[in-house]
UniProtKB/TrEMBL annotation, chain A:
Protein name: LutB/LldF family L-lactate oxidation iron-sulfur protein
NCBIfam families reported in the protein's UniProt record: LutB/LldF family L-lactate oxidation iron-sulfur protein (TIGR00273)
KW RNA-binding (keyword) present: no
Keywords on record: 4Fe-4S, Electron transport, Iron, Iron-sulfur, Metal-binding, Repeat, Transport
Source species, domain of life: Bacteria
InterPro entries in the cross-refs: 4Fe4S_Fe-S-bd, 4Fe4S_Fe_S_CS, FTHF_cligase-like_sf, Helical_ferredxn, LUD_dom, LutB/LldF, LutB_C, NagB/RpiA_transferase-like
Pfam families the UniProt entry points to: Fer4_8, LUD_dom, LutB_C
Keyword Iron attributed: yes
Domain (4Fe-4S ferredoxin-type): residue spans on this chain: 300-331
Automatic annotation (TrEMBL), chain B:
PANTHER family (UniProt xref): LACTATE UTILIZATION PROTEIN C
Residue span(s) of domain LUD: 116-212
InterPro entries: FTHF_cligase-like_sf, LUD_dom, NagB/RpiA_transferase-like
Protein name as annotated: LUD domain-containing protein
Domain of life: Bacteria
Automatic annotation (TrEMBL), chain C:
Domain Cysteine-rich: 11-92, 140-224
InterPro entries linked: Cys_rich_dom
Record protein name field: (Fe-S)-binding protein
Organism lineage: Bacteria, Pseudomonadati, Pseudomonadota, Betaproteobacteria, Rhodocyclales
Pfam families reported in the protein's UniProt record: CCG
Domain of life: Bacteria
Amino acid sequence: MEIRSKEFKQRSVFAIHDANLQTALGRARYGFVGKRALQVAELPEFERLREEAKNTKNHILDNLDHYLERYEAAVTAAGGHVHWARDAEEARKIILDICKRVDAKTVTKGKSMVSEEIGLNEALIENGMEVVETDLGEYIIQLAHEPPSHIIAPAVHKTKDQVSDLFEAAHGGPRKTEVPDLVNEARLVLRDKYFKADVGITGGNFLVAETGSSIIVTNEGNGDLTQTLAKVHIVTSGIERVVPTLDDATLFLRLLARSATGQETETYTTISTGPRRAEDLDGPEEYHVVLVDNGRSKMLAGRFKEMLRCIRCGACMNHCPVYGAVGGHAYGWVYPGPMGSVLTPLIKGLDNAYDLPNACTLNGRCASVCPVKIPLPDLLRELRHMQHQQDITPVMQKRALKVWRYVATRPKLYHALEQVGARFLSAIAKNGSIRRLPLASGWTDVRDLPAPAGRTFLELWQGKRGQK
Amino acid sequence: MTAAANAREAILNSVRSALRRGPLDDARRAELDARRPQHTRPAQDEELVARFIRKFESRAGTTARVASRADVPAAVEAYRADKGLPARAAVGAALNDLAFASLETHHAPAGIDEAMAVSQALCGIAEPGSLMMASGPASPITHNFVPDDHIVVLDANAIVGHFEEAWDILRARPEGMPRATNIISGPSRTADVEQTIQLGAHGPRRVHVIIVG
Amino acid sequence: MTESPTRGPRVGLFATCLMNVFRPNVGFSAVKLLEDAGCTVEVPANQTCCGQPGYNSGDYDAARALARQVIEAFENYDYIVGPSGSCMATIRHDYPVLFQDDPVWLPRAQALSEKSWELLSFLADVLHAAPSDSRYEGTVTYHDSCSGLRGLGIKGQPRALLGEVDGLKLKEMEDSEVCCGFGGTFCVKYPEISEKMVEDKVRNVLATGADTLVGGDLGCLMNIAGRLKRVNAPVKVFHTAEVLAGLADGPGLAGAAKESE
């Protein structure tokens, strides 16, 4: 997927004026946030689990090479194949080669953000394959030719009416307008695809080194049908998703559904270990795992190692007021919201996503709900620092900062300018505020500027206490 | 070196150089392999069967309880008649010991038009109220996902408290990990259209557990 | 304790930039509350800004220059106290991070961090003070500013203190903990997003029917007050300290003088 994060400003303004989007976002925000809060209230151990999850992830990352090697050996022992991909291109090639070798015509897909990250669908389609997204949300946006706008609820930006239109156009009428009918229509259409699929591709929420298993969590069961009915099952996953044991996976499972959708558990947790066995009646004949690096190993080196703890629950975006205002597409690449604002510049380049770390009020709500305690605001600030160091920050802003520093480190000058400012603003104010201030139109375009009284506190204080 | 081996080494080396170290020595590796995590298990103060039923039913699953395994066919028949389903089902060979007199059964994988399947659970997990199914020749995976109605036989004494105990059951199996281990917590569902919860997205529309004992 | 009971701690008041220019009344309210609670209050003249604008813009060098200035101005006081969760969170949490590799300044930054307090939490948690015989006739709703709430754990203290004010009725708004859209330079860099956020905040404020909004950070309050004024909503806006000190008798932020009559 082409990165369009440079258009963040324009796309965010567009999103704010999209009435359908705003309706959909409002509904989603309160749903996810409220349900998560209820689940957290019901689990007294939640905070302890967050701390353990953070520490366990740190342990895994410190020993990542070892656990990856153990995982690979266990997959191989179970009859599966592990492939390593340094970047998106290598990952696409590995998957394409497997698909071509088995002469795949139809490829079904469970939800996988890594497959979005590596631009897999486009590559498969270019090579003549029919690609069918089977997660209902992914299916909807595939019909709309759009990328996901949320990592766990990809079609969260669509209203029911828009889904009705898409289904009518794709499936032929009669037009369905109720949710049960829409879901049923998709169920029937996708059933055929599962049964005729040559290759089924899923993500991997966790890769278990102990057993060589991949774990996916879904509510719909689409991932299971995808990986069970196709002749070949391919798992795409980031290298950081390995966990040592089933018990470690459990720690994260206890946090994942609660943080993501506000459920105690998703409907299906599926642990896959190798291909169909000799006596089995069903299951895929081949089982492949593609381990994707794509910038992750480099992140291990410094501050951004903490970002690799991410379990892709989406709680940060559900609680982000900026995401809530503009939705996922404004962010311009695969990962939106706070986690995306950290990942996108790191994977796609700082200068390709200047706005993402900056379009944040550092309010900290994301970090306060993150199940693995990633200090997202600190990481976003660190990206601003890197932009500043590498001269990606706009020249005007850097100049303004220089002037500010010069003045602010000279208290007498600073106070004198404050006094001038307070008097000036007070003089041009009407009825307690200023409606328009050309040099501060960013402020006054959307709100009045409350007027100062005229003299500064320090001035008044020195006057009063000086007389004492 | 092949391209694939190159990529593998490059990634592992990149991981190590980012961590500012070389490969771990054997002593450290042995230490990591011996690691047995003891993560917090959420407290429970409820009888396991009662908790399982309460949790499973909270997600629109249904349950029935019978005294002995011989009562299962009648319970299946009662469910089938109540839902008005055809007298045909895919039944895992793991349930071969049961006589389904009123039902036409087969052991093959579920086909696209399969209406009902009956399966044996490996165990139940009371913590979230979920079934754990182990795939194998006697328990095809398609039975769990393709039919509209899925009936699962679960022994009451096979309900454990926490996930960790269920993993121990898997580890204790002589044949090791199943090809597929499906933890099922109710009927298939989606909320992808306007956050409205709708059952029967792709998997079974109904999941009915017959608890034995 | 060797200290005589009549002599309270010597407090250096951190006069935040917004307070200094836009709302001196907050400073006088802070002084009154601190002195009523037995503190000796001084306002060092060689202070300017805590450095947060530089820090949050990624200019760590500028932030350090300002931090050193604040440390020098305040390190000889028993406490540094300011009427802003945002500035005080910077001093408490960010100064030690800024100097983490500096053996000379790190201990000084840490020492100042440990005696830095946001005004209301200082009154409640350190001095265990209650506002003396203050009165406010009105229904008040409270906005939780993000830095104070999540950075310093300020949530119960201002509400408890407001509960002591005669005549004041507190009415909670929905999403009081959600950001108002100020975010420092964010609000002028991304005005449309900020507008959407402050609009949500204003809607929640108005839904309470409260006639007054209070909070602990002037940045947020100026943003919300400016928006309330823009949409002609007759809600008065004060810093919590003004209400507690009994100095909320004049016009609120962005309020014309006649409004308060």
